[in-house]
Design goal:
Elements: E1 2-7, E2 19-23, H1 31-46, E3 50-57, H2 60-64, H3 77-86, E4 91-96, H4 99-102, H5 106-115, E5 119-125, E6 129-130, E7 136-137, H6 138-145, E8 150-154, E9 158-159, E10 162-163, H7 166-174, H8 178-185, E11 189-196, H9 201-205, E12 210-214, E13 224-232, E14 235-244, E15 256-261, E16 272-282, H10 290-313
Parallel strand pairs: 1-4, 2-3, 2-5, 3-4, 5-8
Antiparallel strand pairs: 6-7, 9-10, 11-12, 11-16, 12-15, 13-14, 13-16, 14-15
Helix pairs in contact: 7-8
Domain Riboflavin kinase: 184-309
Catalytic activity: riboflavin + ATP = FMN + ADP + H(+); FMN + ATP + H(+) = FAD + diphosphate
GO molecular function: ATP binding; FMN adenylyltransferase activity; riboflavin kinase activity
Length: 314
């Protein structure tokens, strides 16, 4: 897949091949997004055209909010690019979302970024909007096209009797409902980061952990203990993860993310790693001493092994 970054105004002037374009922000590249992209792929193949995705970065709220806003993503741009490539897209257009870009009228957006990129067919979800303040609606896109490209509108995709959306997935993750979030995503939620040195207290407890510095743009699940998979050096291991402030021992406010990797004994400081989140067990708890904490950690390990044994048998 070729990735092309565009800073408004669109400065691509060379002759462009005709293409089918899927529109969306696509944070998470979840099941609803996949339906849009796969529909575009099918149309492109039928018409012997290239399939393209047009997305934006950063999230519009970063630019449009009057307050300084930091958005946490399900899939930061690099991972979003990888997931779209896995779907077999030919071209990814990434438009830098700026104030000037946000002020385009719907007609200007269509002229410069759909007609201008030689779209012959445009595919998007039923609630996709475009142009200043989202004034352009999918029901109006054929009118703006003026016969120069066709339009396909993908109906609402649902799960748990609600729309599959990035917002709903974020809500599930932030409330620890990873089973539900993963169902909507269509894959386990994942974050990336680097293994760093911690206080090594886990060793004294009999539960040595990999401390993780997570890449800044990722949404972090709620505090607590989870069943996870830990991926390092191309290998995947089962583990239990803790997100919290080590309240039994610490009084500071530095959040830590630690993974006890089952059946693992190797030094991996400085390695890039990924955590796939599967299931929330319990909130962070404060214990009066080490004995109570160790007993709870043993139970957490048993719960983790039992969870993955059950999953592998399904």
């Amino acid at each position: 897949m070729e990735t092309i970054f565009i800073h408004h105004p669109n400065n691509i002037t060379e002759e462009l091949d005709p293409k089918t374009i899927a529109l969306g922000f696509f944070d998470g590249v979840h099941r609803g997004h996949k339906e849009v992209i796969q529909r575009a792929k099918k149309i492109a193949k039928e018409n012997n055209e290239k399939c393209a995705v047009l997305t934006f970065d950063p999230h519009p709220s970063v630019v449009l909010s009057k307050m300084r806003k930091k958005v946490k993503y399900l899939t930061p741009l690099e991972e979003k690019e990888e997931k779209i490539a896995e779907l077999g897209v030919d071209i990814l257009f990434v438009v830098r979302f700026t104030t000037a870009f946000s002020q385009l009228t719907p007609e200007e957006f269509v002229e410069q970024y759909l007609v201008g990129l030689n779209a012959k067919h445009v595919v998007a979800g039923f609630d996709y909007s475009y142009g200043q303040k989202g004034a352009g609606k999918m029901s109006e896109l054929s009118e703006y096209a003026k016969g120069r490209f066709e339009v396909t509108i993908v109906d609402k995709q649902e799960a748990f009797k609600a729309k599959i959306s990035s917002t709903n997935i974020r809500n599930y993750i932030e409330s620890g409902e990873l089973d539900e979030a993963n169902e909507l995503l269509g894959y386990p939620y994942k974050v990336r980061g680097t293994v760093i040195h911690g206080d090594k207290r886990g060793r004294t407890l009999g539960f040595p952990t990999a401390n993780m510095r997570i890449d800044a743009d990722y949404l972090i699940p709620k505090l607590g203990i989870y069943a996870v998979k830990f991926i390092v050096s191309g290998e995947t291991y089962l583990g239990m993860a803790s997100i919290g402030y080590n309240v039994t021992f610490k009084t500071d406010q530095e959040l830590s993310i630690e993974v006890y990797i089952l059946d693992f004994d190797r030094e991996i400081y400085g390695e890039s790693a990924e955590i796939e989140w599967y299931h929330f067990f319990r909130p962070e708890m404060k214990f009066n001493g080490m004995e109570g904490l160790i007993e709870q950690l043993k139970k957490d390990e048993e719960d983790t092994r039992r969870y993955f044994e059950r999953e592998s048998s399904i």
